[in-house]
Amino acid sequence: MIELQNVAMSYGGSELLSDMTLKLVPGSFHFLTGPSGSGKTTFLKLCYAELTPSAGQLTLFGQDARVMSRDATAAIRQRIGVVHQDCQFLDHLPLAENVALPLTVAGKSADPAELRELLSWVGLKAQAGALPPQLSGGERQRAALARAVMMSPEVILADEPTGNLDWEMSLRLLSLLMELNRMGKTVVIATHDLNLIRTAKSQVAARVLRIANRRLQLAGADL
Ligand SMILES: Nc1ncnc2c1ncn2[C@@H]1O[C@H](COP(=O)(O)OP(=O)(O)OP(=O)(O)O)[C@@H](O)[C@H]1O
To answer: DSSP for 4-27?
Structure first.
């Protein structure tokens, strides 16, 4: 579904990521690690067609990312749910409307029962009417996950979803992501948190990718 063949990415002429080859198969679970600034967010942006590679072949759901029409890009984005590092909510809209936003933007309206079910899945039913600035960090991250799965995507890309959360809340978020994976979704989580990776690996067949020296490597069994 997401396939990279010798993909490189440059910003302003200097190459940040080089020669990346990887195939994300349906139902797989990957972590992505690497030092701050190594290119994890950039890698995820390539995977959801926010950026196009400066070299190499990137195929998203069978289509060449470098020559995709706007319509094809929009269609592919519906198949990929993204949990952004900073959540990116519209602060003047209540939580439920923020979560339903992907549907609203696509010109559809959310089924109220489905929306309630989704909010209750992430433990935020009682906060449906709250404005994003009134939510805690953990609540915001869970809301961001709910929004990412609103369109029933096949792939979930999560960028540091537990970045500012305490351990208990990190585990809660991880268990939601593992549940999605058990339902057959492909999951990629960018994180610095090695404890989170170890915990997940004891429960799911997760592979760990690491960005080092501009390259994407498969980390060893020590992680
Ligand atoms: N649009 C851009 N234009 C130029 N440089 C950029 C752009 N976006 C990111 N960069 C640079 O690319 C590098 C990698 O950024 P990226 O956000 O992908 O790293 P990261 O591994 O996700 O970092 P962190 O762990 O700190 O979130 C950084 O040096 C950043 O400044």
So the answer is: EEEEEEEETTEEEEEEEEEEE-TT
In 3D, which of 54, 8, 16 has the Cα closest to residue 35?
A: 16
Average pLDDT taken over every residue of the chain:
93
Whose C-alpha lies nearest to ligand 1, atom 17?
A: 41
Complex ipTM: 0.96
How many domains are there within the chain?
2
* Of 32, 48, 31, residue with least CA distance to 212: 32
- Please check whether residues 199 and 137 belong to one and the same domain: no
Pocket test for ligand 1, best of 14, 42, 189 (most atoms within 8 A of CB): 42
- CATH code of residue 14: 3.40.50.300
Ligand 1 atom closest to the Cα of residue 85 is 27
Matching residue, tokens 């939510």 = 135
In the predicted structure, residue 222 carries a pLDDT above the cut 70: no
- Shared domain check, 161 and 72: yes
pLDDT at 213: 93
Identify the residues whose C-beta falls under 6 Å from ligand 1.
Answer: 11-12, 16, 34, 36-42
Q: What's the pLDDT score for residue 19?
A: 96
Distance 16 CA to ligand 1 centre (A): 8
